[in-house]
Design goal:
- The complex is a heterodimer of chains A (123) and B (176).
- Chain A has 123 residues and is mainly α.
- Chain A has one domain: Orthogonal Bundle (Helix Hairpins), CATH 1.10.287.
- Chain A is 71% helix and 10% strand.
- Chain A is built from two helices and two strands.
- Chain B is of the alpha+beta class and 176 residues long.
- In chain B, 62% of the residues lie in helices and 18% in strands.
- Chain B contains three helices and six strands; from the N terminus they run E-E-H-H-E-E-E-E-H.
- In chain B, a hairpin with a 2-residue loop joins strand 5 and strand 6.
- The chains are: A mainly alpha (123), B alpha+beta (176).
- The interface between A and B is medium-sized, with 22 and 29 residues.
- Chain B: GO terms for molecular function: tubulin binding.
- Chain B: One of its GO terms (cellular component) is prefoldin complex.
Chain lengths: 123, 176
């Protein structure tokens, strides 16, 4: 029976810590991604509805109230906002991918070194 | 009388949170201090870190809730500054009650500063103040996140230390 290795190198501890931190960060990023995706979809829907409805004046949400403004103003504001949110979405997705890759690499290394003495799964 | 085992040390963290000492060889530690006091003190240290983590998570929630309020206010003031004519809005009077208002061109806005205090500012100053508050809130959030990252590292190291000491005691008992 192989005894679990009790002596751990400093660099392995650093790796375990890194994995733990990346995991925590990944949860945050996933949460933000979800919120951001919903926002982008909502803005896109709003833009689509605006184009269909032939209104000259519409109300758009600024802060917590609805402001009456012309269709062109509303259109340009919404488009700008949607583009900003889309960029954020892409940035978040890229970040999630990078941390996922790093986590997988760390996982492979740690499982190879410690085998069943370490558990890196979500419970 | 049990001695205090050096399990943590001062760190370079800006908020002076101590960092956990990392042990290469658990056996020496158990031989020097004894398994039970070691486990007890490690557990105490661990719960302290966990408590701090919970505290920081709570303050992070508070900060995250503040951010949309400030951005909403900023959005509105910037809009008011940009229009040349009066603004017609539907705003919320209370839950489920909305009403119309006409906001004439005004040179200033009133900002709620908290503690039942409201101050009137010209648009430019209001925008500056709100941007400054937003900046402060964002940097507070960032330093909280940094601390949480640091804490997570210490907690993980602590957990690994705990399990190593425990495993060592189990194995040495089996060996006997």
């Amino acid at each position: 029976m192989a005894a679990p290795s009790l002596d751990i190198l400093k660099e392995d501890q650093v790796r375990i810590n890194k994995y733990s931190y990346l995991n925590m960060q990944n949860h945050e990023v996933q949460r933000e991604l979800k919120i951001n995706e919903e926002k982008v979809n909502a803005l896109q829907d709003a833009l689509d509805e605006l184009e269909i409805a032939m209104e000259s004046e519409v109300r758009i949400m600024i802060g917590e109230s609805f402001v009456l403004c012309s269709e062109e103003n509303a259109l340009s504001r919404l488009e700008k906002l949607r583009d900003v949110k889309k960029e954020e979405l892409n940035r978040l997705r890229a970040q999630a991918e990078i941390s996922q890759k790093e986590m997988n690499a760390l996982k492979t290394y740690l499982y190879a070194k410690f085998g069943s003495s370490i558990n890196l799964e979500e419970d | 009388m049990s001695q205090t085992i050096p399990l943590s040390q001062p760190s370079s963290n800006p908020r002076k949170i101590p960092s956990v000492v990392f042990f290469e060889h658990v056996g020496e530690l158990v031989a020097q201090y004894g398994a039970d006091p070691l486990l007890k003190q490690l557990n105490e240290l661990y719960s302290k870190y966990k408590f701090m983590e919970a505290q920081l998570q709570r303050s992070k929630q508070v900060l995250r809730a503040k951010l949309p309020d400030i951005t909403n206010a900023l959005e509105m003031v910037e809009y008011l500054q940009s229009t040349q004519e009066e603004v017609k809005v539907d705003f919320q009077l209370s839950d489920c009650v909305w009403t119309k208002a006409e906001i004439p061109q005004t040179p200033s806005v009133a900002l709620w500063l908290g503690a039942n205090v409201m101050l009137e500012y010209p648009h430019e100053e209001a925008i500056d103040l709100l941007r400054k508050n937003l900046g402060n809130a964002e940097s507070a959030l960032e330093s909280t996140n940094e601390d949480l990252k640091f804490l997570k590292e210490q907690i993980t190291t602590c957990e690994v230390n705990l399990s190593r000491v425990y495993n060592y005691t189990v194995i040495s008992r089996q060996g006997k």
